[in-house]
Amino acid sequence: MVAGVGLVSPLRVSSASQRAFGKTRLWPVLRGVKSYLPVTKLKDITKANILKLHEKHGDIPYQANRTRGVLSKMFNYAEDLELRPDNSNPVLKVKPYPEKKRDRYLSPEELKALGKTLKSCEETGTESPYMIAAIKLLILTGCRLGEIQTLK
Fold first, then answer.
1. Contact (CB, 8 A) for 84 and 78
2. Which among 91, 110, 129, 150 could bridge 106 via Cys, Cβ 3.0 to 4.6 Å?
3. What share of the chain in percent tops pLDDT 90?
4. Neighbours of 35 (CB within 10 A)
5. Cβ neighbourhood burial of 68 (10 Å; 0-12, 13-18, 19+)
6. What span, in angstroms and rounded, lies between the C-alpha atoms of 22 and 28?
7. How does residue 23 score in pLDDT terms, banded at 50, 70 and 90?
8. Residue 98 in contact with residue 61, Cβ under 8 Å?
9. Does the pLDDT at position 149 exceed 70?
10. Model's pTM, two decimal places?
11. Is 32:69 a contact under the CB 8 Å cutoff?
12. 118 contacts: CB under 8 Å, gap ≥ 6
């Protein structure tokens, strides 16, 4: 592989793959990056380029930080493939925005809908009874998923 491969060319995939990937949460992040750095060579991207992109989403710190994270992984992978020199990840020099901790609770309507869905799954047998019990345990106890998964 040649150091200097374009940033966008590895992202080009079939239309079917794009449609499938478009349903994931990463697509908006990569679409924004692709439109912002459309023809830049991977080896030529600097901290200044990343900083401009990061500041572009500064009004939405959560999105800016997720974009930063995806880019950091991408540059680390480029280093693994020897498309960039080791320790040259420009994203690491850009500080993430502070984020407010967000607590999210299900509304009464959402709890009712979840209850109906779980009951339906129990009656039809479409889900494992262990999975249904784990979800109920999460709701009733407030434990973390990892704590429930490691119960014996």
1. yes
2. 110
3. 27
4. 9
5. buried
6. 8
7. low
8. yes
9. yes
10. 0.54
11. no
12. 132, 135, 136
**Residue 70 structure tokens:** 């995806």
Structure tokens at 14: 């079939």
Measuring CA to CA, which residue among 52, 37, 46 is closest to residue 6?
Answer: 37
Q: What is the largest CA-CA distance in the chain?
A: 58
Under 8 Å CB-to-CB from 82, ≥6 apart: which residues?
1, 3
At 150, the amino acid letter reads T
Counting Cβ atoms within 10 Å, is residue 103 exposed (0-12), middle (13-18) or buried (19+)? exposed
Using alpha carbons, select from 35, 36, 43, 31 the residue that is nearest to residue 6. 43
Distances (CA, A) of 20 to 26, 67, 127: 11, 20, 24
> In this structure, what token pair is assigned to residue 3?
């150091």
Q: What is the mean pLDDT of the chain?
A: 79
Domain assignments of the chain as residue spans, ordered by start: 9-93, 108-149
